[in-house]
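Subject: two folds for Thursday's group meeting

Dear M.,

Sorry for the delay on this. The cluster queue was jammed most of the week, so I only got both jobs back this morning. I'm pasting them in the order they finished. Each block is the input sequence followed by the predicted structure tokens. Could you check whether the formatting survives your parser before we put anything on slides? The first protein is the one we discussed after the seminar.
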Amino acid sequence: MTSSPPRPEDPNPSAATAAPGGPPPHVAHPQRVRSFVTRAGRTTTGQAKALAELGPRFVLPFQQTKLDLAAAFGREAPVVLEIGFGMGDATAHIASLRPDENFLCCEVHEPGVGALLKRIGEMGLTNIRILQHDAVEVVDHMLEASTLASIHIFFPDPWHKKRHHKRRLIQPPLVAKLAQRLIPGGYLHCATDWQPYAEQMLEVLTAEPLLENTAAGYAERPAYRPETKFERRGLKLGHGVWDLVFRRRAAVP
């Protein structure tokens, strides 16, 4: 499939919903939602070096069996799943703030994987593992129910055109799977800079019976999520950013 180019202002265009072998662009409703959009990009020398030197330690292979999280990280700790980390700046920042948590991060874009590995080396981080694979398949095959403390999905592709809305990542079937994989009290945090997508996110998350909103509508940006340069530029231009933070209920009402 020939993917739509990422928006210049989108800090994380890989957290989208298209893939090679999928339907052509004129098809409105693909049969399967994926967590990424294929895009071109050049891997820099520094990123390639990080992939070669740090990839064997920090990049996990995709498997169609459940992942032993404690073995993968070499310790027992709460696990945060991040879907689509772009170039990894926010991921590295949050992981450095929260060293007592393990971060399992999905991203298919090789320059982004290399960039995060480079940050891992520069910052001496040990609590990140990367899966260079479609996050939807990771959730389906590798993650047990009630094992995740948190899920972060920051600035997924909004698929602006109405006929492409079914390609958006935040849809009821995936949200149900994500909610099932959270521990009771665990949270799902989404952020977007596209108001119509924020409104759809709020509708979908509110409708999921396993989740409850932590705010009366949209949440204040949590302190752990840094503002990106794209976000700061957008805010200066008067654009909005919407955060949504939902928690898994202890019991379904």
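Second protein, same layout:
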Amino acid sequence: MIQPRPRTIPEATVARLAVYLRVLTSLADGGRTTVSSGELASAAGVNPAGLRKDLSHLGSCGVRGVGYDVRALRERIARVLGAERSRACVLVGIGNLGAALADYAGFGSRGFHFVGLFDASPARVGQSIGGLTVQSMAELEATVTATDASIGVIATPADVAQQVCDRLTGAGVRSILNFAPVTLVAPAGVDVRPVDLSVELQVLAFLGQQRAVPAEEVTA
């Protein structure tokens, strides 16, 4: 049985490091050489104390009174996240969402590239999206093995998502990003990250509703 790797950096911190990497990349592309903790924290949507705590997992990074070297910090975070090497991904489910993901050029700049697109619909098989041809589900396992794909993205209807997850993990995929509105069960050693857009919209609706409630009703 494959055991999960021990994580020396908390998962929530890893998620924020990815945001810092995005901000630093934007700053570097714009010609910035240094950035203060306050500026970086504001751009990332966190407080400076939280930023400094997150970066403490990387060792000494900044210089008091000067801030952070943009390129050096970007490279250090990229190494920690493994963003400096390309990771092969496969995507299953080429509906509207899946097609948009397959055609998004931003993944490549962050170290991810799709090596296979799959769909069960004969009408979608053979289509060209993002430079790849959509393949039939019958080719899934062979493609995962041939490309050594380590990440699978599921954008299928909920009723087939678990079956797709089982096939991906059976073929050797050890990380799954799930857009299907269902909770997946995966073997030990497989990381699953759910992205349920309807849940996120419901949370936003609730927060908006709370802001609209008069203060006297909240304290009553």
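Two things I noticed about the second structure. The first strand starts at residue 34 and ends at 35. The two ends are 55 Å apart (CA to CA).

Cheers,
T.
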